Every structure is written in C-alpha cells, then in structure tokens.
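tool=predict chain=A
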Amino acid sequence: MKNPVPKTSFGLMSKVYFKIFPEVNRQLIYWKNKAEEIPNQELRKQALASINTKKFHCQGGAVYSLLAGKRWRDSIRFIIAYQTISDYLDNLCDRSSSLDPIDFQLLHQSMYDALSPKQKVKNYYRLRQEQEDGGYLIELVQTCQNYLKTLPELEVIQPYLLRLEEFYADLQVHKHVTDEERLPRLEGWFQDKGRDWSNLAWYEFSASSGSTLGIFCLVSYAMDGKTSPELAKAVFEGYFPYVQGLHILLDYFIDQQEDKKEGDLNFCFYYPSLDQMKNRLLYFIRQSNQHVQQLPHKHFHEMVHQGLVGLYLADPKVKVIERGQNVTRALLHASGWSAKFFHLNVKTYNMLFK
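tool=predict ok
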C-alpha cells in the first residue's frame, strides 16, 4: 500500500487530522500513563506538565512521518518519544533548583544516547536531588534507540543527527545557567560554533539550534529507505539554520508578553527594534523557501514552513503583542496562500476544540 507524500494544503491537513493526530494521541496516552507512575513527585509533575502543555510540539513534529512511507507509525513513535524527552528536560531545566551546567549536560546526554543505539543508558539524574523516575527517561531513550536500530543506513544520517543534537543540547545548557553567565556563554558559543553562519546574530543562531525538525526529517526519510549521503547533507543544509530558526523565532515571537512577565529569556527581545525583528523574520521566510528547493518533495517542505507561520500566528497570544497584527499580516503575505490557509484552518480548529 502506497503512502504518497501530500502535495497540496488540503491533502496535508486531511492526513494530519485523520491519520497523524489520532496516532499522536495514542502515543501520548501511553507516555502519560508512564509519567503518572513516576515515584518522585517533582519529576512526575514536570513529566506530566510537559505532555499536557506541549502536546502541539509532538503534533507538529509528527507531520514528518508522512515522509516515512509504510513505516509512518514507526516514525511517529520515534518522534513522540524523542520530542517527549526534549519537552521533559526543558521543563526540568526551566524549573530546576539546580543552575549547574554539568547537571544540564548530563540530563541532555539522554538525547545524544537516544540517537546512538550502541550507547548504554545511564543515570541521567546523578547530579541532582530528584532521582526516582521509575525508568521513565530510560524507556524514552531506549524506544528511540530501538527504532534507529532498524535503519540499515543509520550511519549515513547519524553524523547530521548528532550535530543537530549537539547544537540543541549546547543551547539548553547555556540558556539555563545563572542570568549573569547566560549571555556571555551564548555569545561565546556562537563565536565558537556559529562561524559558518556569520550572517546570523548570536540570538538567531541560538534559535536555530533549538528545533528538532531536522532530526525528524532525517529519520523519517531513512525509515522509507530513501537515505543517501547527498540527501542527508541536503536535509541538514535545508533545515539548519533557516527552517529551524523560523520555527523557534516564531515560538518566541508569540511568547513575548508571557516571557516579559515571567522574566524569561526570549531571543526576540534582542532585536534592536520591532521593524528589525519583522524584517529578519521575513528574511528567514525567504531563506527557508530557498533552501528547501534542493530537497525531494519540495512542495511538502514548503508547506511545512508555511504551516509554521500559519500555526504560530493563529495563536491568541499574538493579539497582546505590540504591533502583533501588523507583523502577522506581513509574514502571512510573504508566506503566500498556503500559510493563510493554515492560519485560518488552525484558528477554526482552535475554536472548535478549545
């Protein structure tokens, strides 16, 4: 039975609502049940909160399962497990009593191990007070490892997987330390690791590192047996930094008021002006479109970054952002008809299922 990659916005949304979301929900129910069994109260609280409040991360990432052909369910199961690790660790670091970068590095070793089937699992909580999770994090890691073991050409994509994971883990460590250390660490990291992207500001490179989309794209293609060195390189260059950067900058854009109130880090705050921020978001849209042209199923990848614009700007939080509606109109116009379709579709979905 063939599973063609959708080429139209209508085809994509149909598969998302009737095929992808139901399987995502099934997987999240499984992990939620596991999280409820975590013995330690704080670990249980953060595991459940990451699933309850960040479900849309899993829904968005699971769209890439449409590239996995007959193995689309396997792709979703990998994506949900990996994204759940990401969201869980983000919660642990955000609300941690620890500000120790070594502790954060050890926690995020789990994401490296999840992409490395030959790695042995560890006690990732060794440097923190909370310890007993009933095997929750280890089971998430091993679930990812088990699916990657089935890929005959894992070695072709693994260098790119691990490079994307390294960027992600470095960001999480640097952004969660003390306020005094945070900016010097992030700026120094960009000078060290971001030399190939000198057209970006340090906060744009940081945002680009904070997405898991490139990993999901690589694994899904590999599950369909479509891996080659040329494709792996093209996916990495197609997604990093622009598609991933657009993804996370939009996430920060809609969270501005919330982050200002809570005193949280937000990369959008570092733009010199609102106009500069809008112009750079438009630049990321143009570059995203240009860089996915080299990929197979380019129409799918175009719809993904157009969908990101439509999805995030449909969030009610946009209404309370200074000139939020102005920026929304400009970004939707630049992204084209598909972004407007996704925008309206998501707003309608949110109203119906709020």
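The CA atoms of residues 34 and 136 lie 7 Å apart. The two ends are 35 Å apart (CA to CA).
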